[in-house]
Amino acid sequence: LRIEGCLRNALQNNEFEIHYQPQVCLKTKKFISAEALLRWNSPELGPVGPSDFIPVAESAGLINDIGEWVTREACRQAKRWSDEGLENFRVSVNLSSLQFQRATLVSMIKRACEDANLSPKLLEVELTESAVMADVEHNVKRLNQIRDMGVSISIDDFGTGYSSLSYLKKFPINTLKIDRSFVINIAQDPDDAAIVEAIIALAKTLNLEIIAEGVETLGQLKTLNDFSCDIIQGFYFSKAIPADDLSQLMKKAL
Ligand code: G
Ligand code: G
Ligand code: MN
Ligand code: NA
Predict the structure, then answer these.
(1) Which of 17, 18, 20, 21 has the most ligand 2 atoms within 8 A of CB, as the residue to mutate?
(2) Is any ligand 1 atom within 6 A of the Cβ of residue 49?
(3) Is 128 close to ligand 1, i.e. is its CB under 6 Å away?
(4) CATH code for position 21
(5) pLDDT tens string 159-202
(6) Three-state SS at 127
(7) Which of 8, 108, 165, 187 has its CA 20 to 30 A from that of 253?
(8) Is 40 in contact with 10 (CB distance < 8 Å)?
(9) Count of the separate structural domains present in the chain
(10) What residues sit around ligand 3, an ion, with C-beta below 5 angstroms?
């Protein structure tokens, strides 16, 4: 309840900030994209993590305004990176299933790109399996509208949704993100390794890009390399950091 009260004024009081976590090509070690992760520094409560305030934002009816702010701000940042000469550097934004259910989502995304003067090709949206599975027929249409704009679609936390895999054929998806829970013990646990290897093989067969989340150790990295995983996201390279810090990190990596 306290979170909700503080959250109501957080947008207008400018209490949000976006941090960006790089997504790195395993082969070339090039930073090819970044995930926008929302941070809230409440003057009253201190820093509150998104796992704590996003559910409150959803139940309090605040998620659409907050989500729109995140999308617009992420588009502006993607444009800055593009203007700085980073080629094809994409930014991905997490969408709540409540946002996805809204009829105005597509026009909101379109406007965010237009107002930032950003090519929609440089924007990706992340949706969970459960969000897209809720109403398959309807969601195919919405996802196609997003794809038709040129925006990429990524399935977040892949493998945790207990859902049928048949939707992968139906939906215009670009990227699967293997959930961190499968990656964590990949170097020690043959079962987890087998699951991750199978997901990667599946993604390749379906021509989907694959991102392994939560990579922290060289052992995990090596195993993923053996499985020909495309892209790595995790503390091994960087946690989510402010945009300027990521710019610096990328300049150093060149
Ligand atoms: O940043 P962190 O790893 O603590 O994120 C925790 C959770 O909060 C993740 O599941 C992430 O997807 C979610 N999250 C972070 N930023 C946003 C956001 O802008 N919108 C939504 N809907 N979820 C977010
Ligand atoms: O659910 P989603 O994938 O959107 O959330 C990403 C979350 O995972 C963020 O909270 C982010 O801080 C966290 N995260 C990213 N990389 C790592 C990692 O290597 N280790 C751990 N423990 N968490 C990570
Ligand atoms: Mn995500
Ligand atoms: Na995830």
Answers:
(1) 21
(2) yes
(3) no
(4) 3.20.20.450
(5) 887 677 778 888 999 999 999 999 999 999 999 999 999 999 99
(6) strand
(7) 187
(8) yes
(9) 1
(10) 94, 126, 156
